[in-house]
Every structure is written in C-alpha cells, then in structure tokens.
Amino acid sequence: MKLARSALVLTAVVVCAACTEAQGTGAEAQGAGEERPGAAEKRIEERGPAAPSMDLTEASRSKKERADETGLDEEPSLRISAVGDCTIGTDLKSRWGVGSFHVEMQERGGDLAYPFSGVVGLLSQDDLTIANLETTLTTHEPREPSAGLQFRGDPAWARMLVLGSVEAVSVANNHAYDLGRVGFEDTVRAVQAQGVGVFGFGLVDRRTIKGIEVVNLGYTGGEPSSIMKDMVRSVSREKRPDNLVIVSFHWGGEGVYQPNGDQIRLGRGAIDAGADLVLGHHPHVIQGIETYRGREIVYSLGNFVFGGHSNPEDKDTIIYQATFQRKEGRVVPKESQAIPARVSSVPERNDYRPVLLDGAEKARVLEKLRGYSAALAMH
Asked: Where are the residues of the annotated region Disordered (predicted)?
C-alpha cells in the first residue's frame, strides 16, 4: 500500500500544479490543455519534493488500520487467530496461595501487558483474535463459600485482552456464572468497556472486517439433543455466502485427548448448518483438528493464559490460525495452521505467560497434534 499512497500523492501534486498555472493569463490558461511531454514532471522538480507524509510501521499499525487499508482490495482475505482457555483470575479460595495468578500479577507490579507479552507480536498481525474467557471479572462476593471452583479476577484485568490483541471472547463456559448473575453481568460490562466483543449465552459478536461480516456464536456442550436445534437455527439464520460464521463450543472431557461422540456430532452439525469454522475448548489439553466438508473443526485448543492451575501437568497449547478469502461473492477457506506454544514461559511451573515453541519442542507438539488429528479419520 506504500506504492498506492505514493501514486495518490503524485497525482495530487500534478493536478494541483496544473490548477496553479491555469490561474495565470488567458493565453497560459488556454495552453494548459496542450502541455508538452515532461512538463508536469519538470514542475514537480521545480517545486521541490512533496512534504513527507507520516507512515506508521507495520509493527505499530493497528488491526483496524490494516483492515481499513486492505478493505479496498477486490478480493480481501481475513486471518483469524484462536486461543483456548484464558482464566485471568484465580479460584477465590486460593487466590493468594503460592504461585497463584493473583500473586504472579502482584510480583509483576500489576503489569497488565504481562500475560500476553510472549505472543502479542503474533496476535497483533492477524485481523481478529478469539479466546475463551473462563473467569468472572467482578468485585462481587458470593453469599456463601462454594466447594467448587469460583474463578474471579479484577474487572480492570479486562484490559489484558486489549493489550494482548484479543478482540472477541466467548463466555459460554462452565465458569461464567461462578459469581452468579451479578458476576456474569459485571464481566460482560468490563470486557465490553474495553471494546472487546463478547458472545455466548445469547450474546452474538457481529463485526465487519475488510468489508466482510464476521459472526461469532458460542455454546456450552452437553447432550447434542439439548442444544443442536437452537444452534442449527442460529447458524442457519446468520449464514450467508458472503459472510463468515464461527461457532465456539465449550465441550468434552477434561484431560481427554480425543473428542467424544457428542463433540463430533455437534461440530459436524454446525458445519452442516453453514458454519465456516468450529472452535472447541474445555478439555484443558489439545485435541485433533478435523476437516469436514471443506471446513475445519478444532476440537480443543487447550489452555492459554490459564490462572486455573499453578502448574498444569500438560502445558502444551496451540494458536490456531485460519485465513479466509472472498472469491466471486463468497467467503471461502484459503489456508490454516496450528502454531505450537506453551502456556508458561518456564517449563517447571505456570508463570501465566504463553510463549511460542521452536526446535524440537515445536516439532514434538506438531507431531502430537498430527497423531490426534489422524485418529479422527476413524469416526
């Protein structure tokens, strides 16, 4: 686009130069339309170079700036990133325990950019990043202690999502109501106040990027019969040939590396209804990726910024990226990749700062994912 902008500036200078000289005597104005070859270029040289325009570097330009710029293309493409469970909080009973997310943030001086700092360089280069927000962000206190987990973070921590270049989050999960209706509504308000989209439990995130509408829908898993009808109806209602519909499910068994039959039926049901991409989370480990009718089902993205455990046994995760392109009025898949990562920048504990893997560790996670994906061919 630098060339396009330069051409636009050059054209403007030529036009303005011609207009200025046309304001001279009548004879000069009459001859303006019969300009000698090279005269315009000569005038530009005489006037000196145009004042330099401010040009942001690629690294500092926002996703919106790049989207607005590319939106002028005839056939735009969108790169979507997806990450798994983001618990930017801690269980109320252990929030000040050794190695907790709260303690880590305190030791980091409350640096809200810290949790995503190891991956923001990658996520900031896509067009949309989606995550599962598996916590409440509220100051609300429970009426009585719970024997189960109650995840809670400071409402100000919603800013972490923005600093991590996350634009949309699913709240359709089993911890969204840990602090009741008040906690859920506080969470939605805190996230939306930062300009981050929220979807799930009846909320829909709908946005336009580069002229393409992107719709995010979210559901909690369970028996397919209990949610299939509503899910299919919603996907069918939202889907058009020229838009992109992404469905996120919170499903499956925790610590299980293969999807169960319910996941497979729901995932394929979403594609049958018109979904372009299905994203899964909840098992807290990665599961395989299936290509079904030309669309992908990512059964489990694993954990990501996961304040739910100070030292999970399996720290492997992925950043899934898919690129879609508009062709002849339709939005179609172009390419995809799984980028191996670890939920912590150190292997011996969880410091709640995911980092990309390389070398042998990267190869190991890719081979692991290939094995899980190959097993799906049996279904």
From this structure: 24-76
DSSP conformation class of 142:
P
Burial label, 255 (beta-carbon count in 10 A; 0-12, 13-18, 19+): exposed
Residue range 43-70, pLDDT digits in tens: 223 323 333 332 333 334 566 565 555 4
Q: How far apart are CA 322 and CA 337, in angstroms?
A: 7
CB < 8 Å & 24+ apart, contacts of 94-102: 95/152, 97/310, 98/310, 99/310, 99/311, 99/349, 99/350, 100/307, 100/310, 101/153, 101/307, 101/352, 102/307
- Summarize the confidence of residues 157-182 as an average pLDDT: 97
Q: Are the C-beta atoms of residues 47 and 17 closer than 8 Å to each other?
A: yes
Please tell me whether residue 214 adopts helix, strand or coil conformation. Answer: strand
> Strands, E, within the chain: which ranges?
77-87, 90-91, 128-133, 136-137, 151-153, 168-170, 197-199, 205-209, 212-220, 244-250, 277-281, 289-292, 295-298, 303-306, 316-327, 330-342, 355-356
What percent of the chain lies above the pLDDT cut of 90? 76
Query: Regarding predicted confidence, which is higher, 40 or 222?
Result: 222
Structure pTM?
0.82
Angle at 245 between CA 240 and CA 248, to 5 degrees: 155
Instruction: Read off the pLDDT of residues 111-152 as tens digits, 9 standing for 90 and up.
Output: 999 999 999 999 999 999 999 999 999 999 998 778 799 999
Q: Tokens 């909690």 appear where?
A: 220
Structural domains in the chain plus CATH codes: 77-377 (3.60.21.10)
Closest CA to 247 of 220, 225, 229: 220
Cα 345–chain centre separation:
21
Give the Cα separation of 309 and 13 in Å (integer): 61
Whether 273 contacts 247, CB under 8 Å: no
Residues 60, 291: Cα–Cα separation, whole Å = 35
